[in-house]
UniProtKB/TrEMBL annotation:
<feature type="binding site">
    <location>
        <position position="106"/>
    </location>
    <ligand>
        <name>(6R)-10-formyltetrahydrofolate</name>
    </ligand>
</feature>
<feature type="binding site">
    <location>
        <begin position="12"/>
        <end position="14"/>
    </location>
    <ligand>
        <name>N(1)-(5-phospho-beta-D-ribosyl)glycinamide</name>
    </ligand>
</feature>
<feature type="active site" description="Proton donor">
    <location>
        <position position="108"/>
    </location>
</feature>
<dbReference type="InterPro" id="IPR002376">
    <property type="entry name" value="Formyl_transf_N"/>
</dbReference>
<feature type="site" description="Raises pKa of active site His">
    <location>
        <position position="144"/>
    </location>
</feature>
<feature type="binding site">
    <location>
        <position position="64"/>
    </location>
    <ligand>
        <name>(6R)-10-formyltetrahydrofolate</name>
    </ligand>
</feature>
<dbReference type="Pfam" id="PF00551">
    <property type="entry name" value="Formyl_trans_N"/>
</dbReference>
<dbReference type="GO" id="GO:0004644">
    <property type="term" value="F:phosphoribosylglycinamide formyltransferase activity"/>
</dbReference>
<comment type="similarity">
    <text>Belongs to the GART family.</text>
</comment>
<keyword id="KW-0658">Purine biosynthesis</keyword>
<dbReference type="GO" id="GO:0005829">
    <property type="term" value="C:cytosol"/>
</dbReference>
<dbReference type="InterPro" id="IPR004607">
    <property type="entry name" value="GART"/>
</dbReference>
<comment type="pathway">
    <text>Purine metabolism; IMP biosynthesis via de novo pathway; N(2)-formyl-N(1)-(5-phospho-D-ribosyl)glycinamide from N(1)-(5-phospho-D-ribosyl)glycinamide (10-formyl THF route): step 1/1.</text>
</comment>
<comment type="function">
    <text>Catalyzes the transfer of a formyl group from 10-formyltetrahydrofolate to 5-phospho-ribosyl-glycinamide (GAR), producing 5-phospho-ribosyl-N-formylglycinamide (FGAR) and tetrahydrofolate.</text>
</comment>
<dbReference type="GO" id="GO:0006189">
    <property type="term" value="P:'de novo' IMP biosynthetic process"/>
</dbReference>
<protein>
    <recommendedName>
        <fullName>Phosphoribosylglycinamide formyltransferase</fullName>
        <ecNumber>2.1.2.2</ecNumber>
    </recommendedName>
</protein>
<feature type="binding site">
    <location>
        <begin position="89"/>
        <end position="92"/>
    </location>
    <ligand>
        <name>(6R)-10-formyltetrahydrofolate</name>
    </ligand>
</feature>
C-alpha cells in the first residue's frame, strides 16, 4: 500500500480524485494526510474522507526557508512513501525538495517543457498553441523542470478562453494523476529510475 501526503492550495479537485480512487480496490493507495498553505476550500475533502490535515501558512514565518522547514517537518511526521503537489501554488524551498525527491511529484497544466510557471494556460493561448495538455513530473529545484513521468495532450479549440481550456485540462490532469499514482503503487513506474 502506497502512502501519500497531498499538498493543496485551492479547491482540491485533484485531491478529491485521489481520495475517491483510493477507496477502490484497484488503487492500492492511502492518503495519510493533506497539507495546505492556507485555509483552502479543498480541506473539506480531507474532512469528508476522514483524513487528517495540516496548514503551514507562509505568512506566519519570518522567511521562506523557515516556512519550508516547518512544512517539511509536518510532511515527515506522516512518513509517507510519496508526496503529491496537487494544485499547491508555491515553489518549494530547496531544502524541502532535496529531502523528498524523487518521491515528490507535481501536476502542471501544459506539456512541459513548454509553458512552465503559474500562467501555463494563459501562456499557451497567448502563443497561439493549437494543443497543450497536462504533465505529471518529479519536482526538482527548478520551476516545472523536473523529469517528466507522463503527459496527455489537450487540443486548443477555437474560441477557447483561459477558463474553458483550463477546465478541459483539469479533467485530463485528474485522470492522469490518479493513473500515475496507481502505476507508482503497483511498481509499473519507478521514480528512482526516472530521476
Amino acid at each position: 500500500m502506497l502512502t501519500l501526503v497531498v499538498l493543496i492550495s485551492g479547491s482540491g479537485s485533484n485531491l478529491r480524485a485521489i481520495l475517491e480512487a483510493s477507496s477502490r480496490p484497484d488503487t492500492p493507495v492511502t492518503v495519510v494526510a493533506v497539507g495546505a498553505d492556507n485555509e483552502a476550500d479543498g480541506l473539506a475533502h480531507a474532512e469528508e474522507f476522514g483524513v487528517p490535515f495540516f496548514i503551514v501558512d507562509p505568512k506566519a514565518f519570518a522567511s521562506r526557508d523557515e516556512w519550508g522547514e516547518e512544512l517539511l517537518n509536518q510532511i515527515q511526521v506522516w512518513n509517507a512513501d510519496l508526496v503529491v503537489s496537487a494544485g499547491f501554488m508555491r515553489i518549494l524551498p530547496a531544502g524541502v525538495v532535496s529531502a523528498l525527491t524523487p518521491n515528490l511529484i507535481n501536476t502542471h497544466p501544459a506539456l512541459l517543457p513548454l509553458y512552465p510557471g503559474a500562467y501555463a494556460v494563459r501562456d499557451a493561448l497567448a502563443a497561439g498553441a493549437t494543443e497543450t495538455g497536462a504533465t505529471v513530473h518529479i519536482i526538482d529545484e527548478g520551476v516545472d523542470t523536473g523529469p517528466v513521468i507522463r503527459q496527455t495532450t489537450v487540443v486548443v479549440e477555437a474560441g477557447d478562453t483561459e477558463s474553458t481550456l483550463h477546465e478541459r485540462i483539469k479533467t485530463v490532469e485528474r485522470d492522469m494523476l490518479v493513473a500515475t499514482i496507481r502505476d507508482i503503487a503497483t511498481g509499473q513506474i519507478s521514480l528512482k529510475e526516472l530521476s
